[in-house]
From TrEMBL:
Protein name: Uncharacterized protein
Species this protein is from: Nematostella vectensis
Keyword Transport carried by entry: no
InterPro entries: MeTrfase_7 (IPR005299), MeTrfase_capping (IPR042086), SAM-dependent_MTases_sf (IPR029063)
UniProt record, GO biological process: methylation
Length: 155
């Protein structure tokens, strides 16, 4: 993907060579913030009711190269596995299109799923369906909200 003609980032372009993991390797402050929030996140996860036969999803929004949140992800998976060894766990790493995802992939273990669509008509169909799916997700999350509920937010 060419960042010059197709996409102009709104905040930053990752520093360091692609796949180097530079951000996490040089961001102790981010580790400290996430480590400080770990008890809060684990408490929230331990009190979350997950319906039987469902998937527990964890999302790192603004993941950079993924390294700063991986200790948290490992701790969450360990906690979830202690309660239910067979429950599917889905971890999503999300960031800008220009993000250093190569470093994320190099830090990960296990299954990784990705696809590229080049046919414009097919791409449009997927984009339309994604918009419908996203709206459905947001409407369902809104219906699930309860007065007095909370969500751990590290930012």
């Amino acid at each position: 993907m060419s960042t010059d003609s197709e996409y102009k980032p709104h905040s930053h372009i990752p520093y360091g060579s692609d796949g180097s993991g530079f951000y996490s390797d040089n961001s102790k402050g981010c580790y400290d913030v996430i480590e400080g929030a770990l008890p809060l996140v684990l408490k929230a996860a331990s009190t979350t009711t997950t319906p039987k036969d469902s998937t527990f999803t964890i999302v790192d929004y603004g993941c950079a190269d993924g390294g700063t949140s991986m200790p948290l992800m490992y701790a969450l998976v360990k906690l979830l596995r202690e309660n239910d060894e067979k429950m599917p766990i889905h971890i999503v790493y999300e960031d800008q299109p220009v993000n250093d995802f190569k470093s994320v992939f190099m830090r990960l273990q296990g299954a990784l799923h990705h696809t590229m669509i080049s046919d414009p008509k097919e791409k449009e169909l997927f984009a339309r369906q994604a918009a419908i799916d996203w709206e459905t997700i947001l409407l369902h999350r809104a219906a699930e909200l309860r007065p007095g509920g909370s969500s751990p937010d590290m930012c």
